[in-house]
Amino acid sequence: MSHQPNQPIGIFDSGIGGLTVANAIMRVLPNEDLIYFGDTAHLPYGEKSADAIRYYALRIAKFMLERHCKMVVIACNSASSAAYRVLLEFFKGQALFVNVVDPLVEAVAARHFERVGVIATKATIQSGVYQQQLLHLQPGLDVRALATPLLVPMIEEGFVRNEVSQVVLESYLGHPDLAGIQALLLACTHYPLIKPEIEAFYQGSVEILDSTDVVALEAKRKLEAHNLLNDQRRHAHRFFISDYTPTFEQTTRIFCQEDILLEYYPMW
Ligand code: DGL
Q1: Hey, whose CA ends up nearest to atom 6 of ligand 1?
Q2: Is any ligand 1 atom within 6 A of the Cβ of residue 192?
Q3: Is the pLDDT at 253 greater than 80, yes or no?
Q4: Residues 242, 246, 249, 253: is their CA dihedral positive or negative?
Q5: How much is the pLDDT for 15?
Q6: How many Å apart are CA 233 and CA 218, to the nearest integer?
Q7: Which domain does 128 fall in, by range?
Q8: Tens of pLDDT, residues 141-153
Q9: Does residue 255 carry a pLDDT above 70?
Q10: The pLDDT of residue 156
Q11: Which are the catalytic amino acids?
């Protein structure tokens, strides 16, 4: 792999949820040029089969490599769970890859909790990746995994900090499987948007952990290790989506403080 520091970082998600990770990367790595791809034509990934998600991820990674990305960040837990290994193998040596599962699992295992909860899409929970990786790093840890499929459409529709989100969250977080947890992992890149509400539900009795900052720091660590940190931004960040509706434009404002221009890219 012969990359230059001034090549961009590619970041992708099923839609705009991965902007929570992109925000953290912009903060931690302000000198990097970013190319974001939201596969809005296939949203939600959380309801798709692992094979379908792998197919989408391979095509999007190819798009990133055609744009000379030195690193590809899989800013989606459903895609990280289903496709990370396949991407590593398929594009071996062609770019650095970062997924959103490993950094969060490592951060949690380092804390030596006894019982943790994981909430995520159906695809992520059914993959068993969090459960397996947490137990691999901390045998004996009590992991309570719960699929919470209503949260992504709820957030995408802008139902945050209102009566609807409160009722939905109370119903999920009050589930008996999550009783007695010390920490809750937000294993979906959409969920940081409702972190304040989740924190309010637990009122400090449960630690709420997400992958935004740990993933940005992992990206920085990998770039440093390969002498690929950029010294200065040269281009405006670009944000592509595979299907366009005005709703996406509106929802983007919930995710990103900066005004960003979504460009339609007909990948499929
Ligand atoms: N942001 C995706 C994740 O982290 C979930 C959205 C979806 O279901 O497409 O899993």
Answers
A1: 44
A2: no
A3: no
A4: negative
A5: 87
A6: 20
A7: 102-211
A8: 999 999 999 999 8
A9: yes
A10: 81
A11: 76, 188
Distance CA 265, CA 62 (A): 14
Q: Are residues 146 and 15 in the same domain?
A: no
Q: Among candidates 58, 79, 56, which has minimal Cα distance to 243?
A: 56
Distances (CA, A) of 7 to 27, 67, 103, 239: 18, 9, 23, 16
| Span from the CA of 21 to the centroid of ligand 1 (angstroms) | 12
Distance CA 133, CA 117 (A): 14
User: pLDDT of 179-238, one tens digit each?
Assistant: 999 999 999 999 999 999 999 999 999 999 999 999 999 999 999 999 999 999 998 899
Residue 1, in any domain of the structure: no
Q: What would the pLDDT profile of 97-118 be if each residue is shown by its tens digit?
A: 999 999 999 999 999 999 999 9
Q: What percent of the chain has pLDDT over 70?
A: 99
Closest CA to 237 of 10, 34, 19, 29: 34
* Token digits of residue 198: 């989740």
Are residues 219 and 177 part of one domain?
no
Per-residue confidence (pLDDT) for residue 1, from 0 to 100:
67
Based on the number of CB atoms within 10 Å of its own CB, is 69 exposed (0-12), middle (13-18) or buried (19 or more)?
buried
Nearest ligand 1 atom, CA 120: 10
Give the closest residue (by CA) to ligand 1 atom 7.
Answer: 44
Which residue type sits at 249? E
The residues pairing with 147 across neighbouring beta strands, listed in sequence order, are 120
Tell me, in angstroms, the distance from the centre of ligand 1 to residue 80's CA: 10
Q: What's the gap in Å between 16 CA and the centre of ligand 1?
A: 9
- For residue 68, tell me if it sits in a domain: yes
